[in-house]
Amino acid sequence: METYMNETRLRILEAAEELLSQKGAAKTTIAEIARKANVVDSHAYQYFKSKKGLVFSVAQKRMTASLILLKEQLEGILDPKSQLSKFIWYGLNYNDNHQDYVRNLVFDYRANPEFYTTPAYALIREHASICKKILERGVLNGDFSNTVDLSLIRDIIYGTLDTEAITCVLTGEIDKSVNDWENILSILLSMIDNEAIPQNLSDKRLRIIETAESVFSQFGFNNAKISEIAKQAGVAEGSIYDYFKNKEDLLLSISKFRLEQLNITLKESFHIKTPVEKLRRFMRLHFSIFTKNRNYLRVFVLDTLLNRNFYNSDAYDNYKNYKDSFIEIIEDGKKQGVFRKDLNSRVFKNMFFGTFLHLSLRWIIFSDGPFDKMYEIDTVLDLFTKAALTPDSVPVS
Known about the structure:
The chain is built from 19 helices and no strands. Helix 2 (30-36) crosses helix 3, helix 6 packs across helix 8 and helix 9 (181-192) crosses helix 19. It is mainly α. The longest helix has 24 residues, at 51-74. 73% of the residues lie in helices and 0% in strands.
C-alpha cells in the first residue's frame, strides 16, 4: 500500500511539473493535473492540501534530485578551480536537460515571494552554500583572490545560470547553454583569479578614502576612529598616515576626490570615447534606472523579467535591442585592443544581466537585509571591467 501511495504521489508531481511548465501555475488546475496523472481529484488533495502546496512540492522534488546529482558530480574533485568548473558545467547541463524545471523555476518559483519561505528554497540555499564553500576553498588555497566579495561572485554565477537558461529554453537564442561553459568560466576566473588587479581596483589610497567615507557616515567625524577605518579598509593603521596628514586631511580628501570625479563625469557625459568608460557608464546607468524607483524595480523584475509572456512580446524585442547595445560596446573595445579578443560578448552580456536579475531579486525579496547597494553595484562594475580588460590595458581611473 505504501509503495502504491508513493508511486501515485510521484505520478501527480510529474504531471504537475509538465503542466506547470506549459501553462504556468495560475492557469493550471488540480483537476487537470489529476487527469494527466490518471487519478481522481480527491487523490491529489489526499497528498497535497492545496494547489500552492503542490506547486512548491514539485519544486522540492526537483531540487532534491538536483542537489543529490550535484554532490555526486563533485565527489572526488579536490582542486577548487576544477570544482568550480564542474559546478558551472553541471548547472548549465542540468538546465538544458530539464527544461520544464527551468520554466517553472523562473516563472512560478522565483517570481513568487512565498516561495522564499518554503523547504524548496531551503534546498536552493544548500545548493548555494556548496558554491560558496568552493569559492572559500579557492581563497584558502591561493587560487582565488582574497579581496573579492564571494557572495557577489555567487550571485554572478547563479544569475548567469538563470540568464543562460532563459536564452536557451525560453527565447531560443542559443541551442544549448552548456556550450557556453568555457566562456563563462574564462570570464569568471578573470574576475576572481589571484593575479594583479588593475590599479584602480587595488589602489590603497582610494580604498582608504572610500572606507573613511563609510565610517564617517556611520559614526560621524568626531566619533570615527582611524583604527576602525584601517580595520575596515584592510590596511595597517600607520599606512593611512602615508597618504593623509591626519583625520581631517582624510575627511577633506573625500570631497576632493568626489568633486574631481564629478568634474570628470560631467566632461565625459558630453562625449565618452573610451570603451572602458562606455562599458562602466552603461552598467551603472542600467542599475540606476531601476534602483532609483523601488516600485518600478519590483514590477520590472517580478512581473516582467519573470513573466513568460514578456519573452513573446514587442517589449522584449525592445529589451533585446537595448541589450545588444551592450554587445556593441564590447565589440568596439575588442577592435580597439582594450578588451580581450577571446571575450565572448554574448556570454558576457548574459552574465551581466543575470547578475542584475539576481541582485535585484535579493534586494526585493529580502528588503530588510543589511545590503549596501552602492557597494555591491560598484563592486560588480569593477569585476566586470576587470574581466573584460586585456592584461596590458590602461586601468580606468
